[in-house]
Design goal:
Glutaredoxin, alpha+beta, two-stranded antiparallel ribbon, seven-stranded mixed beta sheet, 9 strands, single chain
Length: 145
């Protein structure tokens, strides 16, 4: 599966999910760029990147556009790959495109989730319905095992 994204240097690039085979990946899905919870989660990954990259590469995924990702990455000085999944193909593959509800209104969106993928792309560990506070520490604790 191929998706456009923003690489570590901030360049637009076409990524094939198979590009990440051969290394462990922290693949995290988040609902929307520049919202409070998503910004906190991204900044937590950013601030702990050195504790993570000795074990795995970090890749964030949301339905936002490349343009939105670029602004988000620049504003928050993010130091990992962001993939754009506007048709939620990857989100559906990982079963994180879910019906949600806010103020009684139902809509489809991303269920905040994180997956650790092994070198072959298989899921080693998953967290669903992630609460942002303390989550990156849970990921690091798992990777340290």
């Amino acid at each position: 599966m191929k998706l456009y994204g923003i690489d570590i240097e901030g360049n637009e690039q076409l990524f094939d999910i198979n590009d990440f085979k051969g290394e462990r990946v922290v693949l995290y899905f988040y609902p929307k760029d520049n919202t409070s919870g998503c910004t906190q989660e991204a900044c937590d990954f950013r601030d702990n990147i050195n504790r993570i990259t000795k074990y795995a590469k970090v890749v964030g995924v949301s339905p936002d556009s490349i343009k939105s990702h670029l602004k988000f990455k620049e504003k928050q000085s993010l130091n990992f790959v962001l993939l754009s999944d506007p048709e939620h193909l990857l989100a559906e593959q990982f079963d994180v495109w879910k019906e949600k509800s806010m103020y009684g209104k139902k809509y489809m969106g991303i269920e905040r989730s994180t997956f650790i993928l092994d070198e072959n792309g298989n899921i080693q560990k998953e967290w669903r319905k992630v609460k942002v506070k303390g989550h990156v520490d849970e990921v690091i604790e798992y990777l340290n095992q």
